[in-house]
Structures are given as structure tokens and as C-alpha cells.
Amino acid sequence: MAVSETTLDAQAAPLRVQPPAALATHRTLATSVLRFLRRNPLVVVGAAVVLLWMFLAAAAPLVAPYGPLAQKIVDRLQGPSLTHLFGTDPLGRDIFSRVLYGGRISLPVGFGVVAVSLLLGGSIGAVAGFGPGWGDTALMRLTDMVMAFPIIILAMTIAAALGPGLDHTMIALVAVSWPRYARVTRGLVLSVKQNEYVHASRALGASEPRILARVVLPNCLAPAVVMATLDLGNTILTFSGLSFLGLGSPPPAPEWGAMVADGTKSFDQWWVSAFPGLAILSLVMAFNFIGDGVRDALDPRLRRGV
Amino acid sequence: MQGIVVRRILWMLPLMVGMTLIAFVVSHSVPADPVAAHLGQRSMEDPAIVAAFRAQWGLDKPLPEQYFAYLRNLTQGNLGISIRTHMAVAEDLGRYLPASAELAITATVVGIAVGIPFGVASAVRRNHWLDHVVRAVSLLGVSSPVFWLGLIAMYVFYFRLGWLPGPGRLDVGMAEPRHITGMYTFDSMFTANWPALVSSLRHLALPGLVLASVYLGLVTRMTRSTMLEVLASDYVRTARGKGLTERVVIYRHALRNALIPTITVLGLAFGDILAGTVLTETIFSWPGIGRYAYQSAVTLDFPAIMGVSLLIAFVFITVNLLTDLAYVFFDPRLRRAS
Description:
The complex is a heterodimer of chains A (306) and B (338). The longest helix of chain A has 37 residues, at 208-244. Chain A contains 13 helices and no strands. Chain A has 306 residues and is mainly alpha-helical. Residues 1-19 and 301-306 of chain A have low confidence and may be disordered. Chain A is globular. With 338 residues, chain B is mainly α. Helix content of chain B is 77%, strand content 0%. Chain B contains 15 helices and no strands. The longest helix of chain B has 38 residues, at 194-231. Chain B is globular and about 85 Å long. Chain B starts with a helix and ends with a helix. The relative contact order of chain B is 0.14. The mean pLDDT of chain B is 81. At the A-B interface, helix 6, helix 7, helix 10, helix 11 and helix 12 of A face helix 1, helix 7, helix 8, helix 10 and helix 12 of B.
């Protein structure tokens, strides 16, 4: 990175009037980020909501008025009020506190599943795109097969088969998410490996694994990471679906999906389901705001249309 | 071109076989024990009963042997017997599929019929208030947890307002229309059973719209972005330059081209509808294969899990094959290549 910047600066130097190189680069980066944010107010809103949720999740023990598991049966199923902002559930637990604590499950699950899927799918895709043809065919056929299952059916089966537990739910989510990353990474590797600098490093005697790890993969990283960010909202949505079906952590855990399910038993008390559902909606929507903005910014065909 | 189509169809066979293997491995080599899920505590303590159960369901044989036995049965259309319902899985699926098909068709039709015009309007009036509203609504659609939306819809329209009926496919006590397709709306229409038609349509409205919401969001967003791309292209500028009316430019020049990439996404997004049926059917007690899949998964009823996974995967693959064919049909460049 540093090397290429210097080269660029050296080439551009005669054209420039005066400003010191470092200052110029700094200003262009900052201004372009600022301009991007000013043109995409929704990205700012999305990022603010995500940051707020991260803060609330981290600070839940300090912010939440009650413990997430504290039951007070006499106060069961009370409507929203000043003492219980979001009301109480069938066991008399404070829904506001449980929603805050819920972020401590959904956010790490979302980031964790996406990170592991990126790593696993990315490795498979990289090997497929870089390795010998038969390996590519075999791996991609496997990817096709897993992708042909609708996500929740496969995830549900795996989660049910592994038995209750958050770690099992996460395994199920990774098991259905990796193929998308494998596909994308393979595509990226296939296009990057055509580049002359790859041929150059091969000519310099670099071993194939080294070329893959040091030359090809770093150039695939950015788009793959962007795709992973776009996927965060969906992953959290699928997770909440599994959790709603009772395939997340076992009961007392304040999982948003499971909390919505609590409300199906007490239909009259709308607040039991409504608030945890709004939590899922706001977080997923925030991630989608960010995703839309990033996609628009990166897609040159759309940029031209502005 | 025909070569590609033939190859795609031929590829379906190994794909399906591979999928049986995945479904088999997932549902069989697992830590959870189906024996414990289906036998009571008392029976579990009796080794003779446990052994009999294992023998009955072939669980005492080595896994490869079980798998090949399954494949052999599959070639004869035998999907095995469900441990939970004690019925042939194929028969169970046949009974539950029409209800899901009815739901999925409704959602698809609503999604396409509403989503495409909204997407076009939104793109044509980019940054107009209409665009902002459409974008916000479609984003809400793709970001809402469908199970939550279903609950809220049921609370508002059934519980509070009483406009629409609650769970189920027909009013309580109403006789099913004569069985033709198993889809109540069609059957009651063909048999001129008007009360049943009204009742089934009213029951279909909420789950159908809730399931449509996700798809609707996807279709609108996809149509909007491809339309924007196409509207910025040179041939649209040429068309405008020739003095064609805006209507002709948008519908005959832009939309036709924008639909091509949209169609592929429609096919892939059909998977979301299939996934949505699991949650929607659970909320609305809709007796379809989604709920069947869920009930089979949580009781580790592996013959049923295998059957329902394969059926859903088969539907998904077929829909995607059809969308690829539609792609050829809609894109004259590919047609000419044949």
C-alpha cells in the first residue's frame, strides 16, 4: 500500500503546484469520506443506530433498570408505563431491560457468524479459484448443492439436530452462509489472478501458496469484506427467525426472536412481542441503510446515473 | 443455447443426489438421538424397546447402508415413513404441499404485480417524494422479521379490528371444498362453492400479504436499481433523442431491459419465500410443508426432514432453472445465439 502511494505521488509530482504530499492525500481521503456521508444521509442514520445498539448492548448492565432474568410474578404482563417502559412479560420480567440485553446476543452472533463464514467460505473460494481445475469443479459443485437448500430449512435442521445451545445455532448459521462467500471469493480470485503483477511474482519465483496468500488474497479482501457488511442484517434476521422457532439459546436468555415468541402465548398483550420485534427491525434496517449506501457508492454504473 | 439448457437439466440429477447426501449426513450423523425424541422415558430404560425402535427405523445398520437403502427407496418414489405422524412421508407432503403452494403463489403474484410498478415509478422519479416513500417501505419489507410482522398483522386486523379471520385455512366448521388441486381457492372456484371461496380468500389474505412483504421489498429494490442503471444508458438517451414519448421510452425500451437481471433475482429470491413459509405457517397455523418441516426438525423425524428438504430444494432448483430459461426468452441476444 505504502509503496504504491509513493509511486503515484512521484508520478503526479510534476503536475502538482505546491502542497506537501502528505497533506494532500489526507485532505482528499477526508473530503471524499465526508462527501460520501453528506450525499448518503441514510448511511449516517444507519451507522448511528448501529453504534447506539452497540453502546446499549455494551452498557446494558449500567443502563437497564432491571436484570434481564429478574422475575416478579406479581407484576406479570403489565403494559408499558414509567416503571416498565416496554411493559413486562408473562414471567414479570422487564421487557426494556431484556431488549437491551438482547443486543449482547444478536450483535456478537451477527458479527461472529459473518466473520467465520467469510473466513471459511473465503478459504474454500480462494482454493477453488486458485487451485487446479478439478478442485475448483468439486468445491463449486459442493457449494451449489448447499446453496440449493433454502437457508432456513437447512439451518433449522442443523440447529435441531445439534440440540439446544447458542453455539449450535451459530454453527448452523455458518453452515448455510459460507457458500455465498465461497462463490464471491472464487470470482474475485479468478479475476485477480489474471493480473500482470501475479505473473510477475510467479516469474520472480514465488511459490503458489505464497502468491495466493501475499499477492492475490489481499487484493480480494476489500470487496469480500464489503459483502460481509452487507450480509450482517440478513444474518441477524435469520438468527432471530431460528431463535423465534426455539432453536437459539435455551429459554431464560433474552434473545429478541425468542422474546417475540413469548408474545404468541399472550396475544392480548401486544407489547410482549412488539418491542423485541422493533429491536430486530431497527438493527437490521440500520445495517441495510449502510449496505445500500456502500453499494451505491461502489457501483460505478449507478454512480454514473446520479 | 439448447446445449446449455440440456446441460442444466442433466446437472439437476447429480445435484439432487448430492443434496440427498447432504440432507442425509445432516439428519443422521448428529449428536441428538432420535430414539430419545420419540420414545418415552419409561421405554428408553428398556433396552429391548430401544433395540426394536432402532431396528424398525434401520438405525442399527451402518450409515452408508442406510443411505443406499434410502436412495433405493427414493427411486421408487418411496420417501419412507414419518416417525412422528406414522404416515408415508410422500403422502404427508402431498397433503401439505397445496396449502403452501397457495401461499407461495399469492406472495409471488403480489410481490411481482406490486413490486415491479413501484420499482419503475421509484426509479423514474428518483429522489422525488414517491421514490423516498417506496424505498422506505421496501426497506421495511426486507428488514422486518416476517414472524413478527405476522403477529402484528394478526393482532391489528384479526384481534383488534376483526376485519379478517384468524389462523387456519377456512372458517371453523366449514366443509373443505371438493378436492381437485388441494388449493382451496382454486377448488372452490372450480366447484362454484362461493362461500368456501370467500372464506378461503379471507383466510389467505393475512399470511399471503405477510409472506409477500419480504418478496415485495426485494422485487421493488431490484427493479429500481436495474431501472436506474438502464435509464442512464446510451440507448435510452438515443430513444429520447429520437423524440419518443417518455412512456414508450420507459416501458418499451428501459423496462424490457431492466427486467432481464430482475428475473434472475426473482428466481433466487423465491428461496426467501420458501424460507418465509416456515415462519409464516407457524404463526398462522397454516397446515403447509413449512410448518411440517419445522415440526419434523424439532422432533428429529429424519425421514420427514429428508423428504421435506428434498422437496423444497427440488422446487427451488426447478424455479431457478425456469428463471434461467425465461432469461433466454426475454433476452434476444441469447435467443439469437442459439
